UniProtKB/TrEMBL annotation:
<keyword id="KW-0349">Heme</keyword>
<dbReference type="Pfam" id="PF00067">
    <property type="entry name" value="p450"/>
</dbReference>
<dbReference type="GO" id="GO:0043386">
    <property type="term" value="P:mycotoxin biosynthetic process"/>
</dbReference>
<keyword id="KW-0408">Iron</keyword>
<dbReference type="GO" id="GO:0016705">
    <property type="term" value="F:oxidoreductase activity, acting on paired donors, with incorporation or reduction of molecular oxygen"/>
</dbReference>
<dbReference type="GO" id="GO:0004497">
    <property type="term" value="F:monooxygenase activity"/>
</dbReference>
<dbReference type="GO" id="GO:0005506">
    <property type="term" value="F:iron ion binding"/>
</dbReference>
<dbReference type="GO" id="GO:0020037">
    <property type="term" value="F:heme binding"/>
</dbReference>
<feature type="binding site" description="axial binding residue">
    <location>
        <position position="251"/>
    </location>
    <ligand>
        <name>heme</name>
    </ligand>
</feature>
<dbReference type="InterPro" id="IPR001128">
    <property type="entry name" value="Cyt_P450"/>
</dbReference>
<dbReference type="InterPro" id="IPR002401">
    <property type="entry name" value="Cyt_P450_E_grp-I"/>
</dbReference>
<dbReference type="InterPro" id="IPR036396">
    <property type="entry name" value="Cyt_P450_sf"/>
</dbReference>
<dbReference type="InterPro" id="IPR050121">
    <property type="entry name" value="Cytochrome_P450_monoxygenase"/>
</dbReference>
<protein>
    <submittedName>
        <fullName>Uncharacterized protein</fullName>
    </submittedName>
</protein>
<keyword id="KW-0479">Metal-binding</keyword>
Length: 317
């Protein structure tokens, strides 16, 4: 996401260590998770010297990268956008209404691109692997579907069970479990038989809604077939499933996230078998670290490559 946001590679795979800005980003989510419900207090605390901590560290890093990108943009005679920041700078140069009104908004967009594009996708990816490890029957069925797909590099091949695995993971573990705040219109709003006054801040907790038995049969079970034709009756109200939010403020990176997760799980299911590591029960992984953005606890997995053996296995005949 560093490349997509401001053409900066964090080089974590190359170095084998977590970049300090990413460490700070993860740590700042603790602050956001605890104080997200009272944003005025969060903004007050981070303005007090010494209390900003990881929030300030991550903010300073992204600001520095954006300033560097702005300098590169001014020297670029061709002005060809290649990342989020350069597209926003082009919009500003062109007088486009979509341009950020000032540098503060540009900094916010840069931070948002990194947080929304990396933590959420990575967390969902980890959650999918966890569910495949504890549900071998799901893992095996997914492998059969992937093995039968035509074209090793054709990621457009219909894979309904893979889609079901991803959707069911997002249902049980939405990456923003607390939901996003919204404000009712000035005239107020009626929801069923409840009247909510105008200009009221509301939050719909996705975690609870997507595990409610009124919306999903057997709500606490991991059932990818819920999203297939054979699973009719398991989804009682599909309006309750919105892991990327809905409306004009829904996640702009939804399709990119789906593509990244689909490609990664497609390749892993094709090449590897997965299980929990010895003496690992996964209980820590089931704990939610924070209410704002769901980051998983550590869980040790055992992943090994045996595609040829798998294709000869009786359960894949």
């Amino acid at each position: 996401m560093g490349e997509i946001a401001f053409r900066k590679d964090f080089k974590q795979l190359e170095d084998g260590t977590e970049h300090y800005a990413i460490t700070a980003m993860h740590a700042q989510m603790d602050q956001v998770g605890i104080l997200g419900a009272v944003p005025w207090l969060l903004h007050l605390l981070i303005c007090i010297p010494g209390l900003g901590g990881p929030y300030e560290a991550f903010k300073k890093y992204t600001m520095g990268q954006i300033e560097q990108r702005k300098a590169e943009w001014r020297q670029d005679s061709e002005k060809r956008p290649t990342d989020v920041v350069s597209w926003l700078l082009k919009a500003k140069d062109d007088g486009d209404a979509s341009a950020p009104p000032g540098d503060d908004c540009l900094y916010d967009e840069g931070r948002l691109a990194i947080i929304a594009g990396s933590d959420t996708t990575g967390t969902t990816f980890a959650n999918v692997l966890y569910y495949l490890a504890i549900h071998p029957e799901v893992h095996q069925r997914l492998q059969r579907e992937v093995d039968g797909a035509q074209g090793v590099h054709d990621y457009n091949t219909p894979l309904p069970y893979l889609e079901g695995v991803i959707n069911e993971t997002l249902r049980l573990k939405p990456v923003v479990p607390s939901g996003q705040p919204r404000v009712t219109p000035p005239e107020g709003l009626a929801i069923d038989e409840t009247w909510i006054p105008g200009n009221t801040i509301m939050v719909v907790p996705q975690y609870l809604l997507q595990r409610d038995e009124r919306n999903f049969a057997r709500p606490l079970e991991f059932l990818p077939e819920r999203w297939l034709e054979e699973g009719k009756g398991l989804v009682l109200d599909d309006r309750a499933f919105f892991p990327f939010s809905i409306g004009p403020y829904a996640c702009a990176g939804k399709q990119l996230a789906y593509l990244q997760i689909r490609m990664a799980i497609w390749q892993i299911a094709r090449e590897f078998d997965i299980s929990l590591a010895p003496q690992e029960d996964g209980k820590n992984f089931e704990q939610n670290k924070m209410p704002k953005t769901l980051l998983p606890w550590q869980c040790r997995l055992f992943i090994w490559s045996s595609p040829s053996e798998r294709l000869r296995s009786p359960h894949h005949e």
